[in-house]
Design brief:
The protein has 168 residues and is mainly α. Among the domains are: 38-97, Arc Repressor Mutant, subunit A (Orthogonal Bundle), CATH 1.10.10; 109-156, Arc Repressor Mutant, subunit A, CATH 1.10.10. It has helices at residues 38-50, 56-66, 70-85, 92-97, 109-122, 130-137, 141-160. It is elongated, with a radius of gyration of 20 Å. The model is unreliable at 1-32 (pLDDT under 50).
Length: 168
C-alpha cells in the first residue's frame, strides 16, 4: 500500500510547499500554493467526505474532474486529513450533512427545467419521488436535495423581502 508516499509533490504547475529557504514564513499551514476556484474546493470537499484516502485511480479521477495537478490534489487531501484529525476542518460537518454553500451546485439546463417543473407542481421534494428525480437527472440524492433546499430558501427570502411575485 502506497499511502500516498509515492505521490509526494514534485515539479508541476504549482510550486511545492516544502520547508525550504524559499517558503514564505507567513504562509499558514494547510494553505495550498495553487489558487483553487470555489467549484474546485467544493468538489474536493465532497470527495473528501466520501473517501479520506483516495486510491491511485481515485486521484486520477479527481485530477481529471478538478483540473488541478496531481501533486496539489494529493497535498490537499493530506492537509485536510491532518486538519480533520486536529479538529480544524470547519467545513467537514456541514459537507457530511449535505449542507453546501449556496450557488455551487452546477446543473445541466435540461435537468434544471425538470426540477423547476417538479417544484412548480409540488412546491417541495417528496421523499417517494427522490429516486425517480435522481434517475431522470443523473444527479445524486444529495445534489437533488441541495437544489430543493436552495430553491425553497430563495422563495422564502423573496417572500420575506416583499418580492413574492412569481417570474417566468
Amino acid at each position: 500500500e502506497a499511502n500516498g508516499r509515492s505521490e509526494l509533490p514534485g515539479p508541476g504547475a504549482c510550486e511545492p510547499e516544502e520547508d525550504g529557504p524559499g517558503k514564505p514564513a507567513e504562509q499558514p499551514p494547510g494553505k495550498a500554493s495553487c489558487k483553487k476556484t470555489a467549484q474546485q474546493r467544493h468538489l474536493l470537499r465532497q470527495l473528501f467526505v466520501q473517501t479520506r484516502w483516495p486510491s491511485t485511480q481515485d486521484y486520477d479521477a479527481i485530477t481529471a474532474q478538478t483540473g488541478l495537478p496531481r501533486p496539489e490534489v494529493v497535498r490537499w487531501f493530506g492537509d485536510s486529513r491532518y486538519a480533520l484529525k486536529n479538529g480544524q476542518l470547519k467545513w467537514y460537518e456541514d459537507y457530511k450533512r449535505g449542507n453546501f454553500p449556496p450557488g455551487l451546485l452546477v446543473i445541466a439546463p435540461g435537468n434544471r427545467e425538470l426540477l423547476q417543473d417538479y417544484y412548480g407542481t409540488h412546491k417541495t421534494l417528496r421523499e417517494e419521488d427522490l429516486q425517480s428525480l435522481c434517475d431522470q437527472t443523473q444527479m445524486s440524492s444529495q445534489q437533488v436535495k441541495q437544489w430543493f433546499a436552495e430553491k425553497m430558501g430563495e422563495d422564502t427570502r423573496a417572500v420575506a423581502d416583499g418580492h413574492g411575485q412569481r417570474g417566468p
